[in-house]
Amino acid sequence: MFEQLGLIGCGLMGGSFALALKRAGLVKRIVGYSKSPSTTERARQMGVIDVEAPSALLAVSGADIVLLAVPVSATEASFKAIRHLLTPNTLVMDVGSTKRDVVDAARRVLRDHVGCFVPAHPITGKEVSGVEHADVNLYAGKQVILTPIERTFTVQLQKAVDVWTALGCHVVKMSPQSHDAAYAAVSHLPHLIAFAMINGIAGQDHGKEYMSLAGPGFRDFTRIAASDPKMWRDILVANREELLDQSRIFQKTLQSLENLITSGDGDALESLIEQASETRANWRIASQKSHK
Ligand SMILES: NC(=O)c1ccc[n+]([C@@H]2O[C@H](COP(=O)([O-])OP(=O)(O)OC[C@H]3O[C@@H](n4cnc5c(N)ncnc54)[C@H](O)[C@@H]3O)[C@@H](O)[C@H]2O)c1
Ligand SMILES: O=C(O)C(=O)C[C@]1(C(=O)O)C=C[C@@H](O)C=C1
């Protein structure tokens, strides 16, 4: 049981974590801070946090667990704001979608205290942001990737595993580099393609009309294009090298399909579609249940 969660960033991910931690009976008090005071106030009114803090430092004052749930570009500034109050016993985690940049910021800013930081990335979310969409069940049954570094304290890492497990998550550990390579392929590229697809269609003369005619295939394929622009700007730029590698692979694969369409090679086209269809039909989202 933790005494106090210091929550920096009372939005979708942070708010959902606060609700889940409280429901699990793992924390006595939640003190929250968001950049905009009206967000912090809203989080308290909604019962997501118990106390509003006027600064990140004050949210962390007295906290034995700290969660950074801010856009990845705000990680370094957040670490700077709280580093003076961190003790070797504090468990500090984040939920950022990229890990190499976050870990680099932690090394630069936290220095001797970097061991109490356990980088985390829950593989769950929504295309809507803000505390209004916080959901006590967001993390249940989902994967959480932890990317400890050589200096991460064993005790803190175990505490992090225990917290996420208690919230019903399946914990996976990997290096920040492997994380960023994998999520460039299965999260960042799909978002990039969804943004491009919507802009490509909406930018055409008859784009609006076409979109008014679209059905569930279009809806399912493009849901994530409605995601928060600033959050995704940060993610795509932070993981640009891995993302651009994946984008090149995608473009080559698309080109191969186009070539077969151009030449009218139906058999070869069918065989590539069959490959994709079988792969996707056999794919299941990883969850705690499927790992049992
Ligand atoms: N939304 C998703 O699907 C999803 C999934 C997994 C991980 N993430 C990661 O979670 C993090 C938070 O995303 P979210 O969806 O909760 O966004 P959100 O917009 O709902 O919440 C972010 C909160 O951080 C606050 N904030 C912004 N800059 C700040 C700063 N400098 N100091 C303090 N507070 C600040 C905002 O006011 C907001 O309350 C991001 O790093 C994102 O990459 C998001
Ligand atoms: O469900 C969504 O809307 C998401 O995009 C969630 C999603 C993803 O699967 O790509 C988005 C970003 C994350 O860092 C983790 C999960």
Q: What does this molecule look like?
A:
Helix 4 packs parallel to helix 5. The longest helix has 27 residues, at 176-202. The strands form 2 sheets. Strands 3-2-1-4-5-6 form a 6-stranded parallel β-sheet. A 3-stranded mixed β-sheet has the order 7-8-9, with helices on one face. By secondary structure, it is α/β, with parallel strands linked by helices. It is elongated. The protein starts with a strand and ends with a helix. Helix 1 links the parallel strand 1 and strand 2. The protein folds into 2 domains: 2-175, NAD(P)-binding Rossmann-like Domain (Rossmann fold, 3-Layer(aba) Sandwich), CATH 3.40.50; 178-291, 6-phosphogluconate dehydrogenase C-terminal fold (Orthogonal Bundle). The chain is built from 13 helices and 9 strands.
Terminal-residue CA separation: 26 Å
Largest sheet, in brief, is:
6 strands, parallel
Form type? elongated
Q: How much strand content do the residues show?
A: 5-15%
Share in helix:
40-55%
Pfam families: PDH_C, PDH_N
Organism: Polaromonas aquatica
Protein name: Prephenate dehydrogenase
Keywords: Oxidoreductase
Which SSEs are present, and which pair or pack?
Layout: E1 2-8, H1 12-23, E2 27-33, H2 37-45, E3 51-52, H3 56-60, E4 65-68, H4 75-82, E5 91-94, H5 100-110, E6 117-118, E7 120-122, E8 143-146, H6 154-166, E9 170-173, H7 176-202, H8 207-212, H9 216-222, H10 229-238, H11 240-263, H12 266-281, H13 288-291
Parallel strand pairs: 1-2, 1-4, 2-3, 4-5, 5-6, 8-9
Antiparallel strand pairs: 7-8
Helix pairs in contact: 4-5, 7-11
